[in-house]
Amino acid sequence: MAHTEGIQVIPIPGPCAAIAAFSVSGCHAPFTFFGFLTRKGRQRRNELDAIASSTYATIIYESPFRVVQTLADLEESIPDRKVLLAREATKVFEEYYTASISEAHVILS
Question: Average of pLDDT values for 79-91?
Fold first, then answer.
């Protein structure tokens, strides 16, 4: 409701970056947490397919060195899905960026 009213949501630091980022996303529960995806191969494709077919919000962790490729992979099947990119959650220089997967991929490329 805060997002709908234009109120900025700022997480309180805690032990879990995934929950801190989810709390500011504006998404509603339930969610699925994948952690770090497999780097390549059939298992990665299966994970990406599971994300694409899920009706739940999805939380993944990704290395800053692989985030562009992961967005490209997700863009193949769900280009218009909304994504929140969070960096340094609950730290002094935290950043949050919301866009479609396609928009985020273009901006970060």
Answer: 90
